[in-house]
Structures are given as structure tokens and as C-alpha cells.
């Protein structure tokens, strides 16, 4: 299996607390509740300090208890049919407001951390059958992965027009007895079983324009989602800095002081810590600008001049020089190359 699809080691992973409330609301359809489990109750009791996140190990214990209480091996897969948190609707609206199916998929993969910190979405368009792959972070529960799979298929279903079948085939990471139920719950034509969870998409539909496209809404939701991601907990200093830089792009001031202050450390200490990580503040700013520039050009929604200012460059010529340094080509040539592909 490719290295990018292997489980990524993490010292500590905390999941969004909305999963716990979603699980509990879904259990109500079975006539049970997490409170009936002393273990789950102790983990989620309101007498504990309120936190919007839960440790991965504790999240796994809650999934164990929920599956036992529901007496349903497909409980996680059914979750999207039983309850949908507001953040899912928000991400779905952002995707629906995108210009094309492909740009909607980019929105889903880019902003999926607001949904789950235990799973990363990877979109592969280089093969004959494009796919969305669920890359587990740490050791998430299989029910968690199947719940994510169900919500993804639901979000993709919202992008369909005239029952075009955007979800062509699903590959599940574990064999189940009720394959037909699996297929019906996900609304797909075919279910296979492999080493990871994947959604296979029809290549011909990716560049199809969305009737629900709305640039005004898409831009503002993207700003909000980016702000949410920037404030996610992270024990990776480099990732924290990159998130803060991304949030401040276009503000005209992405100084090291503005990054260090919210982290309650001095700029000098931040620079020293980054040096220990084998990088620097300037390198991370450059990296974030490069990644964002290539993504925004690929989306094709903004002019190159607008992108230059969005990235915090003083003028388009400075952006062009930086882009040539990153890619050995001009932004115009890169945009044409993306369009040709």
C-alpha cells in the first residue's frame, strides 16, 4: 500500500465532540442512550470539564459501547441516515456552492478537518477512475471510518443532478455480511472490500458545472471554514504555524509577531522552536503561499491579480517572480496547463 495511505503516526489525536452527541442522538432511534453505559457516561458526563474535543482512545470506547447498545454492526454506517450535525450541512453547502463537481471535491478534502481529525480525505484524479480515499490518522474505530464514509456519500449525493450517480463504487476496509445493505445505505452501484475505505467516482462527471454554484456564498463559507481549521487543536508546531499563516493571508500583515502572540510565546522562542523542527518562519510562509497559489489557480475562480493580493503580495509582479521560483513557470502557463489537463 502506498505510504500516503498508511496510518499516520500521531502522538495524540483528539476528535470533535460533535461525534459523541451525534452517536447519542442516533442511539435514540434504537431506544437506547449512552447514559445506559456506565463507561460511556463517565467519559461524557457533564460533571467533567467542558471540552469541544475528545481523546481518540475515549472516542473509540464510546463507539464500542454505542455498537453494543444498538446491537448493530452497521451502526456507524447508518449514522448519516439518523442524524446530521450542523457542521456537515455547512461543509455540504460550501461544496454545493462550488463551480464544478471537481472544485466541490476540493472543498471537501480541504475543509474536512472541521468534520473529523481522525480521517484525512485524499482525492486522486490521476487514474482512470478517480477516487476519494479515507486516510486514518492514529487508530480510529472502524465504526468511525464507516460513519465518515456514510456522510461523504451523503454529501456527494447532494451534488448529483438527475440521478447521475456520482458515487459509482465504494471500497470498504472490512468485509461485512450484509453487503446489499451496505450498498443501499450508501446509495452506490457496487461495494467491494479492500485495504482502505474509498469512494470511486466517474471521471466524466468531475468537470460538470453545478447548478447550485454561487461564488458569493462559496467565498464566504471558505473564509469561515478556513478560520475554523486555523483554530483546531494541534500538537504539531509546524502545522499550527501554517494554519495561522493561512488565516492571515491577504491581511497585509503576516509577521511572526502576529503568529506568535496567539500561541502565547515570543517571536524569538517561536523561531528557535521552528529551527529545532528543521524549518523557519519564512520557509513556512513561502510553503503556505505556494500551496495556496496552486490550489487557487487550479480552482479557476479568481484572476491572477486577485490571487496575488489574496496571498499578501504587494503587487502581481512579485507574485509572478515567486511563482516562477516555486514551479519554474509563470502563473499564466500553470493555469493553462491545469485547464489542458
* Global mean pLDDT: 84
Low-confidence stretches: 1-11, 46-50
How many distinct beta strands? 7
The quaternary state of the protein chains shown equals: single chain
Number of helical regions = 16
**For the terminal residues, how far apart are their CA atoms?**
27 Å
Radius of gyration: 21 Å
Shape: globular
Strand content: 5-15%
Order of helices and strands: EHHEHHHHEEHEHEEHHHHHHHH
- Work out the helicity level: 40-55%
Helix and strand content put the structural class at: alpha+beta
- What is the strand arrangement across the widest sheet? 3-4-7-5-6
In the residues, how many domains can be counted?
3
**Biggest sheet architecture:** 5 strands, mixed
How would you summarize the topology of this molecule?
Layout (H helix, E strand, L loop, with lengths): L13 E3 L1 H10 L10 H7 L8 E3 H15 L4 H8 L3 H11 L4 H11 L7 E6 L6 E6 L5 H16 L11 E4 L6 H8 L3 E4 L3 E4 L14 H16 L6 H12 L7 H5 L6 H10 L4 H19 L4 H7 L5 H12 L3 H10 L1
Parallel strand pairs: 5-6
Antiparallel strand pairs: 1-2, 3-4, 4-7, 5-7
Helix pairs in contact: 1-3, 4-7, 5-6, 5-9, 9-10, 10-13, 14-15
Describe this structure in words.
It is a single chain. The protein is an alpha+beta fold and 341 residues long. It folds into three domains: 3-82, no CATH class; 86-205, no CATH class; 236-340, Homeodomain-like (Arc Repressor Mutant, subunit A). It is 52% helix and 9% strand. The chain has helices at 18-27, 38-44, 56-70, 75-82, 86-96, 101-111, 142-157, 179-186, 215-230, 237-248, 256-260, 267-276, 281-299, 304-310, 316-327, 331-340; strands at residues 14-16, 53-55, 119-124, 131-136, 169-172, 190-193, 197-200. It has a five-stranded mixed β-sheet with strand order 3-4-7-5-6. The protein has a two-stranded antiparallel sheet with strand order 1-2. Helix 9 runs antiparallel to helix 10 (237-248). The longest helix has 19 residues, at 281-299. The two termini are 27 Å apart.
Amino acid at each position: 500500500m502506498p505510504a500516503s495511505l498508511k496510518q499516520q503516526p500521531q502522538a495524540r489525536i483528539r476528535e470533535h465532540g460533535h461525534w459523541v452527541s451525534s452517536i447519542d442522538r442516533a442511539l435514540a432511534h434504537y431506544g437506547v442512550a449512552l447514559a445506559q453505559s456506565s463507561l460511556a457516561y463517565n467519559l461524557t458526563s457533564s460533571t467533567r470539564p467542558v471540552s469541544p474535543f475528545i481523546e481518540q482512545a475515549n472516542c473509540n470506547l464510546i463507539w464500542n459501547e454505542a455498537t453494543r447498545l444498538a446491537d448493530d454492526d452497521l451502526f456507524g454506517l447508518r449514522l448519516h441516515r439518523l442524524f446530521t450535525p450542523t457542521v456537515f450541512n455547512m461543509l455540504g453547502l460550501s461544496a454545493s456552492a462550488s463551480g464544478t463537481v471537481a472544485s466541490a471535491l476540493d472543498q471537501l478534502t480541504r475543509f474536512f478537518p472541521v468534520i473529523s481529525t481522525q480521517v484525512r480525505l485524499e482525492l486522486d484524479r490521476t487514474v482512470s477512475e478517480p477516487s476519494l480515499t479515507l486516510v486514518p490518522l492514529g487508530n480510529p474505530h472502524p465504526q468511525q471510518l464507516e460513519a465518515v464514509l456514510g456522510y461523504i456519500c451523503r454529501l456527494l449525493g447532494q451534488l448529483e443532478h438527475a440521478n447521475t450517480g456520482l458515487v459509482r463504487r465504494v471500497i470498504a476496509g472490512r468485509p461485512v455480511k450484509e453487503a446489499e445493505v451496505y450498498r443501499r445505505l450508501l446509495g452506490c452501484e457496487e461495494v467491494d472490500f479492500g485495504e482502505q475505505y474509498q469512494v470511486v467516482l466517474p471521471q466524466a462527471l468531475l468537470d460538470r458545472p453545478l447548478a447550485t454554484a454561487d461564488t458569493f456564498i462559496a467565498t464566504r463559507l471558505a473564509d469561515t471554514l478556513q478560520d475554523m481549521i486555523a483554530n483546531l487543536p494541534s500538537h504539531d508546531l509546524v502545522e499550527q504555524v501554517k494554519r495561522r499563516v493561512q488565516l492571515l493571508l491577504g491581511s497585509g500583515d503576516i509577521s511572526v509577531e502576529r503568529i506568535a502572540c496567539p500561541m502565547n510565546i515570543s517571536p524569538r522562542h517561536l523561531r528557535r522552536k521552528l529551527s529545532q523542527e528543521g524549518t523557519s518562519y519564512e520557509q513556512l510562509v513561502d510553503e503556505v503561499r505556494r500551496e495556496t497559489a496552486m490550489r487557487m489557480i487550479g480552482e479557476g475562480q479568481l484572476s491572477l491579480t486577485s490571487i496575488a493580493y489574496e496571498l499578501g503580495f504587494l503587487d502581481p509582479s512579485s507574485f509572478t517572480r515567486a511563482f516562477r521560483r516555486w514551479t519554474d513557470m509563470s502563473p499564466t502557463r500553470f493555469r493553462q496547463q491545469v485547464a489542458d489537463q
